[in-house]
Amino acid sequence: MTNLQEDSSTKADRHATRFVPGQPDMWVFVLFESLLFTGYFSVYLVGRIQNRELYLQSQAALDLRFGVFNTIALLLSSWAIARCVQASREGAYRDALRDAFLTIGFGVAFLVSKVLEWGKEIRLGNTFTSNEFFQHFFFLTSIHLLHLLIGFIVMGVAVYQLRSPARRSQQLVETCATYWHTVDFLWVLIFALLYVVR
Amino acid sequence: MSSLRRLLWNFRNHPKRELWFAWWVMVVFYQLYGVLFFLVTRVQPPPSPAWTTPMIVQWFDARHDGILAGFGIVFLISGLCAPMNALLAYSMRRMSVSRIFGYSYLVMYSLSAIPGMLVMAVAMTVGAMRPDRDPEMIRWLYDFAFLSFSGTMGVFMIGSLVWLIAILIDKNDVFPKWFGYLGLCNGLTEVVVAPAWIFQRGVFAWNGAIAWWINMVVFVTYTACFIVLLRKMIVREDFGTGPLPDLPSKPERSQADSVGAMQ
Questions:
Q1: HSE on the CB side for A70, CA within 13 Å?
Q2: What is the pLDDT of residues A179-188, one digit of tens each?
Q3: Which helix (H) or strand (E) holds B49?
Q4: Domains delineated in chain A
Q5: pTM of this prediction?
Q6: Which one of A28, A131, A146, A147 makes the best mutation probe of the B interface by having the most chain B beta carbons within 10 Å?
């Protein structure tokens, strides 16, 4: 009897550890992107070690308020998409749809703020070609913004799934959420490296 | 002897002989491409765009024989791109998606071989051919060759995206979805080459850590994955139009092979 119980509990554990939200394939993407950005961050850090003064001076020219606002906007968007997944799991599709639009809304807030920040930096004379720090700044923020733009397409897929009772694939909604969380996760690292680490 | 007979039988009767031919061409081509560009001609990894004219002339001098011999072979084998691209397009034709995907991919990749490989090879050969040529001309050819090579990245980006979309909407399970997502990763690293048009030094120059080295690692991973996945696709191919069957188990495969040999 005890053996039987142990067997069933280990099976359940194994099942629990094997389960990932959404398509496991999207987690492979998360792994690849994390490795790729680790490469970009390493190059940035090596440059920073070699030219510390320049990086510190240029970093001082950044407006931390934009960085904080952007981080809060994306963290809120991640919170909204997590609620969306939760609602969709419970079958509350109207709430899930509202949370999906909320996620897109926070994403748009990030996009607008990012464009305003770029405009401000360019007006101050800090462009992509100004110096090494700003090369990294514009590169990392643009490649991240590209991920965010793809995120809007991904959220379009989630909304499309949630809208019709004929579709509503929980797996696809969770796959989209995983992508969106990756965009947020990468931003938190970029924010820490570009704005905070001194 | 029996293995020779088996090979001959497969050559004459195997229903997948064209697919296997294209796949082996792909394996051989990529190996040769690596050997010719990295070891024989030694034009990759790329040198710095910021070099002075005497340094560039010396660079060509040091590679004179390698460039002439290596690119001679490149010109000879460049046509192997055709069966290779055909196999890639075939994978998309086997999917439950519009033919537009396969055709766009085929046209794009066929065109990108011209600037990405042939024009680059011609410019390099012209540069190496007459060491007594005006050094400024040699410098011009150097820029022309490397920018021609980097200039194909946009095509590769769209190619990755075409394949990615085809894989994600395909219902025949020809490729796993994770390879589609890896295509997105690969496509985004091609975007990163664009700053090579602006910078002559640093991580974004055509030889930079971000614009070349990281991209090369991603591209090699992507290529290795699709070579393995194309092999699996050929093994699974049933020449139908519905979902591809699962990979047969090893005993089943060896049984099928021995039946083939017997016949």
A1: 30
A2: 999 999 999 9
A3: none
A4: 23-196 (1.20.120.80)
A5: 0.88
A6: A28
